[in-house]
């Protein structure tokens, strides 16, 4: 690989690209370099045609990511806070056509939670904890939590988490929809691999269109979202993959999609 990484690990097991935040000695705290390497690795996975799903996890078994690197935050000025990279990774994860999964094992706080919020799917182990403790430091989240968290868990729970700054358990996260699957720690990555293989069985356009419909649809009115959905379905109905999917269903065989 042309790019040498210092803060992450990048590995592939088709159809999955697994990106691991690899700073266990710091509970995988998110430095600016970590953000840069995550963006580069996501770009690599997006361009790799053999990769259909991208997952992000944390090394060490104790943390997905404990938050932003506080030594950097302590020295951050207005110019640094306004740099696009601070919010850029989550936006990148939302906008790429391939599905993304956050595989959370342990602490998922602050900037780490904001990375997870940018992923399409979030699964976690029972020992995971989630929080937005920035208020205790005299600041507010800066990586997108104030916008994404209420859209995912609703206004009331977003207010509870951000105003109180107290961590919630994995069970509570499942209850409020912050995560959708609770998986045993030693089965977490195998479950993510299974999810990736399941997602890869769909026509390539399908996840891309679903991501676009949901993200863009939630930004506008219900009527505009429904209109966009109609045109999206109309476009897919004209693809070769739609013909293949229908023929496979009627003939009780596995479809062979080509992304056409």
If you had to describe this structure to a student in words, what would you say it looks like?
This protein is of the alpha/beta class and 260 residues long. It has two domains: 8-199, 2-enoyl-CoA Hydratase, Chain A, domain 1, CATH 3.90.226; 205-250, Lyase 2-enoyl-coa Hydratase, Chain  A, domain 2 (Orthogonal Bundle). Helices cover 47% and strands 15% of the residues. The chain contains twelve helices and ten strands. The protein has helices at 32-47, 70-74, 78-81, 85-95, 110-118, 145-153, 155-164, 170-176, 188-199, 205-217, 222-237, 240-250, and strands spanning 8-13, 16-21, 53-58, 63-65, 100-104, 107-109, 121-124, 129-131, 168-169, 181-182. It has a six-stranded mixed sheet, sandwiched between helices. It has a four-stranded mixed sheet with strand order 4-6-8-9. Strand 1 (8-13) and strand 2 (16-21) form a beta hairpin. Helix 4 packs parallel to helix 5 (110-118) and helix 5 packs across helix 6 (145-153). It starts with 7 loop residues before the first strand and ends in a 10-residue tail after the last helix. The model has no long low-confidence stretch (mean pLDDT 91).
């Amino acid at each position: 690989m042309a790019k040498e990484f210092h803060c992450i690990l990048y590995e592939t097991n088709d159809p999955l690209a697994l990106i691991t935040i690899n700073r266990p000695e710091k509970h995988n705290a998110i430095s600016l370099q970590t953000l840069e390497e995550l963006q580069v690795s996501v770009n690599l996975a997006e361009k790799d045609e053999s990769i259909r799903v991208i997952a992000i996890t944390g090394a060490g078994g104790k943390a997905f990511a404990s938050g932003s690197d506080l030594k950097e935050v302590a020295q951050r000025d207005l110019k640094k806070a306004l740099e696009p990279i601070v919010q850029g990774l989550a936006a990148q994860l939302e906008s790429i056509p391939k599905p993304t999964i956050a595989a959370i094992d342990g602490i998922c706080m602050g900037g780490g939670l904001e990375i997870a919020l940018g992923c399409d799917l979030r699964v976690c182990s029972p020992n995971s904890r989630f929080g937005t403790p920035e208020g205790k430091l005299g600041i507010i989240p800066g990586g997108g939590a104030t916008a994404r968290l209420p859209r995912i868990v609703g206004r009331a729970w977003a207010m509870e988490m951000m105003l109180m700054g107290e961590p919630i358990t994995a069970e509570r996260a499942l209850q409020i929809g912050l995560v959708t699957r609770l998986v045993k720690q030693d089965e977490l990555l195998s479950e993510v691999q299974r999810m990736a293989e399941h997602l890869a069985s769909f026509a390539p356009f399908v996840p891309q269109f679903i991501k676009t419909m949901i993200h863009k649809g939630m930004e506008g009115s219900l009527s505009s979202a429904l209109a966009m959905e109609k045109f999206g379905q109309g476009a897919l109905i004209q693809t070769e993959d739609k013909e293949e999917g229908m023929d496979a269903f009627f003939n009780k065989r596995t479809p062979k999609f080509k992304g056409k």
